Automatic annotation (TrEMBL):
It comes from the Bacteria. PANTHER family: DUF58 DOMAIN-CONTAINING PROTEIN, SLR1927 PROTEIN-RELATED. Keywords: Membrane, Transmembrane, Transmembrane helix. This is Uncharacterized protein. The chain crosses the membrane at residues 5-22.
Amino acid sequence: MIIILIIVLFSIWGMMWFWWRWHWQDGLFVTVTFSTKRIFQGEKLVLTQHIYNHKRLPLHFVQVMLPVPRTFRLVVGQGDGDYLGNLNQVYSLNGYENRERTLNVQMAKRGIYTLSEIELESRELVTGQVQQHKYPIQQEIIVYPHWLDVNPIQQHWESSLGETLTRFSLFEDPLLFRGVREMQPQDALKQVNWKKTATTGTFYVNQYEPVSQRQLTLVLALPDEASWRTEKYAEATISLFATIAHECLAAGWQLKVLSNACNRQGEPFMMTQLTSMAVVLDACAAIDLEQTTNSESLFTNLLASSEQHVVVCASAAARQLPFLPQLQAALGDQLLWLNMVDHFRADTTTLATAVKEVLLP
């Protein structure tokens, strides 16, 4: 009798084990969401994991493993985050139970990060046998470069280009009508508003809203060779470029961008007319340092063009200074060259007047 009972118990356990092995993931739903999809380097976001066991079978051990890059830092408390490998969470779920957890994550580096899958791991209660299952997910986080302090940059800006960069060249926009005024000696006859002139007997001319027609060329010059030695200079140069672009757009400048930077697909980062800061930040986030091209062609094209106001963002790790004398001869005081350095030179007399140094953050 005892033997029959043992056989029956083992048969029941075997059927339960067999059923668990092939069906434990049935009705198990996992979602991963982020509080924001766009964030600046160094800022924190909230990652939310939601798991639902939509069946009667309880799961005493479920581990949710989310593979993340090293730039995802788990934050505990109020300090900065630490890299802990995969963001693993362990759950024990009853039948038809919902669980949700939130994690604070700090984004440590600029870039575009795609999370494509999440892995679940469950263990059988008696034998401890492990079963794994992968779920596809589609989550993309865009991390923008952090802003630099504008005060030291502003000092270089004012001392270098001076009145050339602060002068507004204002023209009237014929599509923005503002009103009429009495005619003055310098007004052209084609400006006369004949209807108003006929009703009043006095010459009146049309007035239009002014529009600024200032254009500035921003050059992002990254080190030709990407390595761990030059990475900090390249990242700081991208932050410098984004900060200057933000200030220029806020001041009403029309920007043209030239660079030897490329995205992951090898597409160059160049824009003939830039008016949106969102476009700048997305492009900066997409830059892949491994795809950087040689800067010689960049400066050759710059010298061959007829640019008037040029700001070059470079670094001490980049070897583009041989092009500086030619640029300075062609542009004169309309050139500003900002170099990211880790320390200021003791002797600044050897620097060209157009070169200004900015300390790494």
